[in-house]
Amino acid sequence: MSIKVRYFASLKESLGRSEDDLSFTCSLTVQEVWNLANPHKSTPDNILAAVNMDYVAWDYLVIDGDIVAFFPPVTGG
Could you tell me the pLDDT band of residue 77, with boundaries at 50, 70 and 90? Predict the structure, then answer.
């Protein structure tokens, strides 16, 4: 199975990349996706996650073909 992982805004800048392509053999939660894509970085505080453009909890299970996005909270003004 494979998924695309995207990073936005300051998170993209701090990681030094905008996306990853991950392959895996069993179901993963969004938290496990973060850990697999960023093995030496803890999850930053207040980071939001979305799967296929819908906000999800960090225990949401991703499936083959999903697009997982991580981004800092957005403020308007």
Answer: low
